[in-house]
Amino acid sequence: MTIQLHDTMAGATRELVPLEPGHVRIYSCGPTVYGPAHVGNFRSFLFADLLVRYLRYRGLRVTWVMNVTDVDDKVIKRSLAEGASIGEISERFQQLFLSDMTTLGMTLPDVMPKATEHIPQMVDLISKLLEAGHAYATKDGSIFFRISSWPQYGRLARLDPAGMRVGERVEADEYGKDDVRDFALWKGPKPGEPSWETSIGPGRPAWHIECSAMSMAYLGPSFDIHTGGIDLIFPHHQDEIAQSEATTGQMFVAYWLHCAFLQMNGQKMAKSTGNISTVADILSDGVSPRALRLALISAHYRMPLSFGEDSLQAASSAIDRLDALMAALAAYRTECPSDDSLPALLNGTREAFETALDDDLNISPALAAIFELIRELNRRIDGRTLSTADAQRAIAFIRGIDQVLGIAPVADETLESGLQELLDERAAARASMDWAASDRLRMALVERGVLIEDTRDGQRWRRAD
Ligand code: AMP
Ligand code: ZN
């Protein structure tokens, strides 16, 4: 088995060889919790989720860390605007983030460190950079990384260090820098801003150092995979590499994975332009969480994802097809010999699915293989060529694949008390051809959110979305 991943640093697809055999350590730049995350943000988080799920499905142990940026300019700005503490703002939006993650069926990362709880680790890194001459302090108590001390700077972003950042707007509080290209590690205290008393002086961390400190705290000085959207390649990830490698003298990250943007109306979804939709916005339009998840993972992560009504519609009908198949398989009863071509069908599907995902998480052919299987199983259900045990085998197979996709209906859902009785009563009414009672019971179930379909194998139920 070889899994190939596209590494931005190499500019090529490379075989994944974990630094520690059998164990893959992954860090994903997480949300800045100053407002609700939009579905563009969730595209980048779900791509990391797909990666983690697939590596686990392939039998690898994965340690996944995703940080929460709970102190930065945007969090501070909102806290000042609302007259609330940064803790109150970040707590509110972190809770919302966790609830959106759950709604979208995201695997919870093993660790979700918060920046404000890792100030000592950041101070430690900055102290080492100061000692080694890679950093310097300015009069206002800020500390900057000295780019001229780090010749490799620019490799990830393929930038020429000489030309970098010239012309970039220099923030008012950054005028003390020796060189316009240098970036902040630590920001000196300012009235109205949170500040920590530390051995490098009072102030607060800059954004980039947060990710270096939190990733290395949980994954060590060198780890396997770092993920984020392509907008983070420069300067964020480039700066993370410089700070981390200049401190430890070791390679920071073995594979850099970046996902392309989710676009709406041909434009990057971004808070700054205002063309955003949140998870709540989309669900309130009647889209199911699983359809939204499928829409967000269904394009290859390095391709722009064009998001809108069409893609949601396509995902919703795909989910309906999957749900209908799962319900049909669960209800299927035929006493006949096993279908001897079923094992080959399932194995072929598994092979196509894995071959696609091994190839840099190429999701489109992987999904195509699953939806082709759905068509084929429907044919066999209609032709009554499967046995009851075959139908159960097919369910188990789809559940196995769904460890990666996370789009199948919840397994073995049990009904709340009273609902099963209504279903049983209705089945009895139909058996005695009491159609009036059957219709009345159908409506009673609908009112409780359960939809009924009558099939050759009896009545089937599913939850209304
Ligand atoms: P932020 O909360 O702005 O730091 O962004 C969190 C993550 O979302 C980062 O990995 C960004 O690269 C990513 N991101 C932001 N906008 C988009 C978008 N439109 N499409 C895909 N990823 C995005
Ligand atoms: Zn980061």
Entry summary:
This protein has 465 residues and is an alpha/beta fold. It has three domains: 17-259, Rossmann fold (3-Layer(aba) Sandwich), CATH 3.40.50; 279-405, Isoleucyl-tRNA Synthetase, Domain 1; 417-463. The chain has helices at residues 39-57, 73-82, 86-103, 119-131, 207-219, 233-248, 279-284, 289-297, 309-331, 342-358, 363-382, 388-405, 419-431, 435-447, and strands at 4-7, 12-15, 23-28, 61-66, 135-137, 143-145, 183-187, 204-205, 223-229, 253-259, 262-264, 267-268, 305-307, 450-455, 458-463.
- Proper CATH architecture of the largest domain: 3-Layer(aba) Sandwich
Count up the helices.
14
Task: Quickly name the level 1 CATH class of the largest domain.
Answer: Alpha Beta
Give the names of the bound compounds: adenosine monophosphate, zinc ion
Give the % helix: 40-55%
Strand content: 5-15%
Encode the helix/strand succession as letters. Answer: EEEHEHHHEEEEHEHEEEHHEHHHHHHEE
User: What's the β-strand tally?
Assistant: 15
Secondary-structure class: alpha/beta
Shape: elongated
Mean pLDDT metric: 93
Low-confidence stretches: none
Q: Report on the biggest sheet.
A: 4 strands, parallel
Question: CATH superfamily name of the largest domain?
Answer: HUPs
Spatial strand order of the main sheet:
4-3-9-10
What is the domain tally?
3
Distance between the termini: 39 Å
What is the radius of gyration?
26 Å
The fold-level CATH name of the largest domain is Rossmann fold
